[in-house]
Design a protein that fits this description.
By secondary structure, the chain is mainly α. It has one domain. The protein is built from four helices and no strands. The chain is elongated. The termini are close together. About 20% of the residues are buried.
């Protein structure tokens, strides 16, 4: 009975594991392809913040690069807004009767920057999930192979 259970479990894992690996790799290709379509590249000049110099002139095609570019946006946004968030700028703009054109432009800048940053962080998270799915698929495949070996040994 145990041999049968091991064999059935092995079969399920040996189907599920490779399927997860294939899906994880396909997801990673999709994220990379979508990032490439956006044609985002780091500035080639030396104006990159500390820690991002290795990305100078590099196009954004991976999750790690998307995360790094979102960090670049965050730093630029902090400089542009004086450290204020979109919500804080909107509150200030509304308190001033919505008539301050400089605050209106800053509000738009903050909104666009935070939106772009959020999209890039979403790509980073998707990239990380594809890594998790691929890794779990590999583990399930290995466990399935071990169960199959045990089932065959018991037969």
């Amino acid at each position: 009975m145990i041999t049968l259970l091991l064999g059935v479990t092995a079969g399920i894992l040996l189907v599920a594991g490779p399927t997860m690996v294939v899906q994880g790799l396909a997801g990673r290709r999709t994220v990379s392809r979508e990032l490439a379509r956006q044609r985002i590249s780091f500035p080639a000049t030396g104006s990159l913040p500390a820690g991002l110099h290795r990305y100078a002139g590099v196009p954004v095609h991976t999750g790690a690069q998307a995360r790094a570019f979102s960090d670049l946006i965050a730093e630029n946004l902090t400089q542009a807004t004086g450290g204020r968030t979109y919500a804080e700028i909107v509150e200030e703009w509304m308190a001033g009767g919505r008539s301050d054109e400089q605050l209106a432009r800053l509000r738009q800048t903050a909104f666009m920057g935070q939106s772009l940053r959020g999209a890039l962080l979403g790509a980073y998270q998707a990239w990380q999930i594809t890594l998790l799915v691929t890794g779990l698929g590999a583990v399930l495949t290995a466990v399935g192979a071990a169960f199959l070996a045990l089932a065959l040994r018991g037969a």
